[in-house]
Amino acid sequence: MRDGRATKLRIHQAALTLFVAKGVTETSVRDLAQAAGIAEGTLYRHYASKDDLVADLFASNYAAFADRLTTLGRQQAGFRARLAALVAEVFRFHDNNPTLFRFLLLVSHQALARVPDDAANPVSVLHSLVEQGVQDGEITLTDAALGTAMILGLMLQPATAIVYGRLEAPLSRFTDDIAAACWRALNPTEAPHG
Amino acid sequence: MRDGRATKLRIHQAALTLFVAKGVTETSVRDLAQAAGIAEGTLYRHYASKDDLVADLFASNYAAFADRLTTLGRQQAGFRARLAALVAEVFRFHDNNPTLFRFLLLVSHQALARVPDDAANPVSVLHSLVEQGVQDGEITLTDAALGTAMILGLMLQPATAIVYGRLEAPLSRFTDDIAAACWRALNPTEAPHG
DNA sequence: TCATTGTGAGTGAACGTTCACATTAGGCAG
DNA sequence: CTGCCTAATGTGAACGTTCACTCACAATGA
């Protein structure tokens, strides 16, 4: 029998590229097949449907990234070190695979519905981290949900700015600036370099 | 002749609601007509195409909001006051018309292509504000584009968190917190309450 | 009266998906 | 080693559905 794994990888790459460039709904199965260099029917040897492809592409990468963040948090002591490591990892991920990063950002709005609630989730990992920091008295801000949103915004908007050409890649050159800005944002009454 | 303006408003409302709830591409002209209580053909008495409806809905509201922000900035003296007024206005807009706010967020990725470059743009208004602050030495951070992204993130992610139910509305209750967080994020070496 | 507004069945194109058939390659008998 | 066998993989024309959009006609009201 032939090995279909190479074909599946070609589908992955074509799908990520086209989904990010044109949007999921705007990308047809014909588009995908042409970009991957296969026939339309071949896609259905590997995925039950187009939706299944999107959901699988999202869920597997989303959960894997959440796992990486969780592992990372365990290797650091103290909230500030964990935060810095998390920002660094997110930015490194963006720079290493911007297309995948943007795909996850793009479809998280719609794809999250098809992902099981108990699956690992980068946002909930971050939320747990902030909650821990609040409990341990390591940050002044007490609303963990607000703190999570702040950190998320300080990371994702610079990434978005790169997409629009308002900021120049790589994102990693802002790692220290953003980690420090997160820290200050979370500590309303403390000196910035506490 | 009959007055079509009421019909046009019904189309606006139906379109905003459905576009936000299901997405633009996932909303058909049949969906729009049914929600607005009109026939499909009627929509084409008011818009040349579905794309035209989206573009008009986006461009008019996007530019109007940018103008409001510009006016607001002129009424304040000093960067910090301007920043606080801007955050307050953005959050007020979100609370007064969350559907319109989310629509502008949702389609800004794709709709910006059809909007003339010289049109007023909320992001460029913010960028000019930050640039002015840098020039006047009112903030420590020197990269205006990075500062713009930071402020944008600190405003938009809390708004997004409300959509997902991670944060409770209204957004306005965070106005002071976020304005202060923006200020601290932009001032790496300064005391937080300078 | 007539320009404007409203109607909805109809149109061709594009969509996701299917299916009968072709191709491939590892296992296995001779 | 050779030559089938078979399951996996690849193919693309065809299918039914849905889509955005059109048009001949009706209704409205200044």
From TrEMBL, chains A, B:
Q: Which residues bind DNA?
A: 28-47
Q: Name one GO molecular function term.
A: transcription cis-regulatory region binding
Q: Which InterPro entries match?
A: Homeodomain-like_sf (IPR009057), HTH-type_TetR-like_transc_reg (IPR050109), HTH_TetR (IPR001647), Tet_transcr_reg_TetR-rel_C_sf (IPR036271)
Which PROSITE patterns does the record cross-reference, listed alphabetically? HTH_TETR_2 (PS50977)
User: Which residue numbers delimit the HTH tetR-type domain?
Assistant: 5-65
Pfam families recorded: TetR_N (PF00440)
Q: Which UniProt keywords apply?
A: DNA-binding, Transcription, Transcription regulation
The name this protein goes by in its record: HTH tetR-type domain-containing protein
